[in-house]
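Whiteboard transcription, Tuesday session. T.W. wrote the structure tokens on the left side:
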């Protein structure tokens, strides 16, 4: 190569450009990874603390992070719910939560799930402050509407998932509950409201029949919000910690702790009295005790833990 050949003079330039380009690529990659791993409720940095870190673990969690749940669609855009959580705390509405001082532990979870209109204000020490997902029965929507500012006006990022029969949730203008939800979105555009699809409702009925041997409709049963909450949690949570839920034998135990049915309704009917009333109703009752026996079965094959009171899963 002759001394007049310009290529040798360009090599240092190419090298410098290559270094700059690679530096930019690395910087952008680190920034994107940091954003992904620090977003709540996806606590994906946990393996750095007390656990070994692996590429396989990262890939698995990134897959879960964008997991789509087609059984729940947004109002009114009909987009599927996308959510995954490492540890979910499900907070029962039971009076069992009173005096437990579990709020701090609950708030440390990746995601916190609550039901219907159960409030946190005034009960933070026992039930916590955070709410990631609130699962709501169609019959409880009017209760939320009575305190719209409290539930929908706060910029807290809570996701609302409403379940109910097609007659109330239909979207052709004749679904009374769906119409209410559309109005909420108009009043509070930032609200994140999803409805359970008809297919998902049928699936929950199917699971009830498979687990109990009873057709829900023929047996005159209504599934509880707790049922829909746990079915959802088993899809979107790696581990589940349930607070304040009694097991199927609790109300037959001597000296059981008598508490109000709801922790936020002092003086309401005793929890066990409510459970027994519903379990024995010929029609229109929630089969709370039957459902708890199914939950105990699920806990044998899923990472489900119960506290206040604790369950002995054998």
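and on the right, the sequence the group agreed on:
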């Amino acid at each position: 190569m002759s001394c007049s050949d310009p290529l040798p003079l360009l090599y240092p330039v190419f090298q410098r450009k290559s270094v700059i380009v690679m530096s930019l690529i690395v910087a952008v990659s680190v920034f994107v990874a940091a954003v992904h791993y620090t977003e709540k409720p996806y606590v994906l940095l946990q393996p750095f603390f007390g656990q070994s870190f692996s590429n396989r673990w990262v890939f698995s969690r990134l897959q879960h992070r964008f997991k789509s749940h087609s059984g729940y669609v947004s109002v009114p855009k009909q987009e599927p719910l996308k959510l995954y959580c490492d540890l979910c705390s499900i907070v029962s509405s039971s009076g069992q939560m009173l005096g437990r001082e579990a709020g701090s532990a609950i708030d440390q979870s990746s995601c916190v799930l609550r039901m219907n209109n159960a409030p946190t204000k005034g009960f933070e020490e026992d039930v916590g402050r955070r709410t990631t997902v609130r699962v709501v029965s169609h019959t409880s929507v009017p209760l939320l509407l009575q305190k719209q500012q409290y539930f929908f006006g706060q910029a807290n990022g809570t996701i609302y998932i409403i379940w109910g029969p097609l007659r109330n949730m239909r979207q052709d203008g004749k679904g009374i509950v769906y119409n209410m939800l559309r109005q909420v979105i108009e009043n509070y555009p930032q609200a994140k409201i999803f409805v359970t699809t008809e297919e998902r409702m049928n699936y929950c009925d199917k699971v009830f029949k498979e687990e109990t041997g009873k057709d829900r409709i023929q047996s005159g049963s209504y599934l509880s919000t707790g049922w829909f909450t746990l079915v959802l949690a088993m899809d979107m949570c790696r581990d589940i910690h349930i607070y304040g839920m009694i097991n199927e034998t609790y109300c037959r135990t001597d000296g059981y702790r008598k508490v109000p049915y709801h922790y936020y309704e002092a003086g309401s009917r005793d929890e066990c009295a409510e459970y027994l009333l519903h379990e024995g109703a010929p029609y229109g009752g929630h089969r709370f005790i039957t459902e708890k026996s199914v939950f105990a079965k699920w806990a044998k094959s899923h990472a489900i833990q119960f506290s206040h009171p604790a369950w002995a899963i054998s």
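Someone added at the bottom: Confidence is low (pLDDT under 50) at residues 1-15, 28-63.
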